[in-house]
Amino acid sequence: MILICKLLRRHVSVLQLAGFLLANLLGMLIVLLSIQFYQDVRPLFGQEDGIIKPDYMIVNKQVGALDALGLGNSTFTDAEIQDLRQQPFCKRADGFVSSQYKVSCSLGFEGGMSMGTALFFESVPSEYVDVSREEWRFDAGNPVIPIILPRNYLSVYNFGFASSQSLPKITESMAGMIDLNVRMSAGARSQTMRARVVGFSSRINTILVPESFMKWSNALLAPDVHPQPSRLIVEVGNPADDAIVTYLENHHYELEQDTLDSGRITYFLKVLTALVVGVGLLISALSFYILMLSIYLLVQKNTEKLRNLLLLGYTPWQVGAPYQCLAVGANALVLALAVGLVWLVRHHYMEMLWNMFPQMEEVSMWPTFFVGLALFLLVALVDVVAVHRKVMAIWYRKE
What is the pLDDT of residues 62-73, one digit of tens each? Predict the structure, then answer.
């Protein structure tokens, strides 16, 4: 083994090896830094809303003068929904189902003070809602209504009602522990139940309840009413597609602008990240090819010496091990340097982001490290197998 290592050192070009390390480090750094930066800034563009994903958009009809006089029709017909579903940009479209009864909610505080308000409920299919299935379900045998509130409702309470009434402010986690009393009524029918907040969303301006509860409550309190939906939730493949805006304008539909802008920004962020990662992978692949070519040339240059070593009794594994260690060690060094540089660069840009967005939460670097480790293991495996096959070819010719 020592003889083989000495033989290898005599023919290794330090300049060539340094060039490989630099090129591979550049490629690995671009890949890992792009992935980490995407993970860090993604919450700023609404991706981490936690309830409604950015490629889901909410559509409604424009309200005109006839609607204000009660003579218009702002609901969607089955034909209009079907036409929207057939558009190339649309993956799926479903209507919001509204409660067909009156809803009032009350919340009590210590000292006898209470707060009550009239509400309304809406629901969408559960596939659109990113909440745990255990929390987002309704059981008529244990009737507690899970609800999702718009995040601005909490802001209105904390900075409006609570401040003026000297009441304690409520965080999102605290809101999930508060039981609400809900009374639903339609004509002579009424039902009183408890409700619990399971989430807040910045992308919806409605009070969501599970679809199963909406069907149950409408059937119980308003069984004879079957209205058409006045709003649609639409899943699109590319939020930046201009055909979406054109279609909505031609049909006099409106789209919540925040959902469109957030979806577009997130989509472009994904595309930009994919392009940068692609460039990094290309540089890494080219540098990997340079390393493999260098090792092949080393092995080819020492073919006669390696054949003699095999004739002396060295095994193919002993002959190929120094070349494999060189390749694996070089890639391990590149991974360590790349992760260290990503941490250093991230430390600087995160300080700037925190200054601009103090509420921003730090994201773990473990996913980026695991991506780098996966790339290292893949390249190391290819290196080991390639060198072993080359040495085995010399071994077979020896025999």
Answer: 776 555 555 556
